[in-house]
Amino acid sequence: MTLEEVLIQKSTERAQCAGNALEEVLVSAKDNDSLTVGVYESAKVMNLDPDSVSFCVLAMDEEFQCDIALQIHFTLIQSFCFDNDISIVRVSDMQRLAEIVGDKAEQFEDTHCVLITNPAEGSSWEDPALEKLHLFCEESRRVNDWVPEINLPER
Question: What pLDDT digit, counting tens, does each position of 114-127 carry?
């Protein structure tokens, strides 16, 4: 096995591990009522209390690739996250993300942006899977991948 093959394999394993960690964190945050779903709702939270935001997930489907307004929103959200040291990832399966963060009684129309927030005033949210995601983002930034893409595991 060549060095390039090892690096590609290691990168793929990291991405799979990050996908599993992201799903775990989203389920846990949903159970703790620590999710904000939707571009507009997320923008409000980031504007009012950026310190409460632990992590940001942007989702894009092929259907919305040419939506200029959404791309502008994404650019502003990414900039805000960078300015406030909020880790951010992108996922390409918006339907799968909606399955994870929603439930049968509550189907979200807009899952383009999902924020994971701290559960209560002044408290920090400790989660090993969230730490894995922060490390994944940090490692990605070291190789100039500022908004890494994660594939959520299929169910």
Answer: 999 987 655 556 78
> What's the rounded Cα separation, in Å, for the pair 137 and 40?
24
CB-based contact 152:16 (threshold 8 Å):
no
Give pLDDT tens digits for 23-63.
Answer: 999 999 999 889 999 999 999 999 999 999 999 999 987 77
Q: Could you tell me the two tokens for 33?
A: 């009522």
pLDDT tens digits for range 54-105: 999 999 877 777 888 888 999 999 999 999 999 999 998 888 999 999 865 4
- Reference 59, options 69, 74, 44; nearest CA is 74
Q: What is the C-alpha to C-alpha distance for residues 133 and 89, in angstroms, rounded to an integer?
A: 9
Residue 49 Cα distances to 10, 73, 92, 96, angstroms: 37, 18, 27, 28
Among 104, 98, 112, 128, smallest CA distance to 25 is for 128
Strand partners, 55: 87, 116
